[in-house]
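for the writeup, i need someone to sanity check this before i put it in the appendix. the sequnce is what the collaborator sent (i think, or maybe the updated version? ugh). structure was predicted straight from it, no edits. if anything looks off just tell me and ill rerun, i have time this weekend
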Amino acid sequence: MIKTKPVAFALIYSILVIAFKLFVFYSGLQMTKLGMYSHILSLLIILPFVFVLIFLLRKEKGGDLSGKDAVKYALIFVSVSAIILSVFNYVFFENELKAYIANYIQTQGPKSILEEAAKKGQKISQEEIDKMIKGGIEDLSAFKDTTSKLFSVFIFGVFSSFVSSIFLKRNTNE
């Protein structure tokens, strides 16, 4: 059961994160503070999952779980979660998010560019605005978006794994 527990936790975590992100997107909260910080919130949820995973594994092994084993199981959880969430993110970006962001850039971009130019005391032509909008839309990439999220999941996941293993490890009697 020990080998399947990290995978089961990864599936549960991934399903919760996916449900949360879909809720934020389809309820129109994408451009609110909740939407802006949804990725950070999904990262912060990794820590309690890792803690509970290591705690249950330690309990299952009779209280003895080395730091090495704790990190190993936590990293399995993080790796499986990262793979699942990366696949979801890529598919979701290509099917929904790319069009949403492109529409947002087209509708809100000119206003934002003009406001920013006014703050700096610069004059900007409509031609320059159109070029910036076109460049922003052309720069949208599912690969870039997925890579940035994958990297942050791994970094925070590895950090959480080490922190959790330090706090919850029990030295084996070998």
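Residues 5-168 form one domain. Helices lie at 5-26, 33-36, 38-44, 46-60, 67-120, 126-138, 142-168.
thx in advance!!
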